[in-house]
Amino acid sequence: TQQISEIIDHINQVHEQIVAEFGQNLASSQVVVQQASSLKDGFIEFANGLRKMKANMIQLV
User: Fold this and answer.
1) What is the mean pLDDT of residues 50-60?
2) pLDDT of the residue at 30
3) What is the spatial distance between Cα 30 and Cα 24, in angstroms, rounded to a whole number?
4) Which band of pLDDT confidence, cut at 50, 70 and 90, is reported for residue 29?
5) Considering the entire predicted model, what is its pTM?
6) Distance (Å, whole) CA 28 – CA 34
7) What is the C-alpha to C-alpha distance for residues 11 and 17, in angstroms, rounded to an integer?
8) At 49, is the secondary structure helix, strand, or coil?
9) How far is the C-alpha of 42 from the C-alpha of 61, rounded, in Å?
């Protein structure tokens, strides 16, 4: 029973480690998604700026 108890303890430790690592990976994934979203917003703003610049250039000509 001592060995069984040790095995169960070991399984629990590994399980806790897996859960912790999964939580960290999930948090990292959320950060990546947020960064991608803000990058997309930045590109949209950049594209809008180019459109305005083009409109201004046309008016100048």
Assistant:
1) 90
2) 92
3) 10
4) very high
5) 0.56
6) 10
7) 10
8) helix
9) 29
